[in-house]
Amino acid sequence: MADLLARLGNRIRTLRKKRGWTQVEMAERVGIDRSFLADVERGKRNVSILNLDLMAKGLKVSLSQLFSRL
User: 66 with 11: CB under 8 angstroms?
Assistant: First the structure.
């Protein structure tokens, strides 16, 4: 499970950086705490589907796109 969380976090980080956003910018756009986002990106949080949906919408991707290539 830790490997899946790490891969998901890396995917979120990659999509965020592709848009040129800092963690602070993304957290503000999505409405989550920056430290929470940092933990997700490091694979340290088992994030809920609701928060994943918020992140996907903020990144302008579908949930299926967020999980693609994991």
Answer: yes
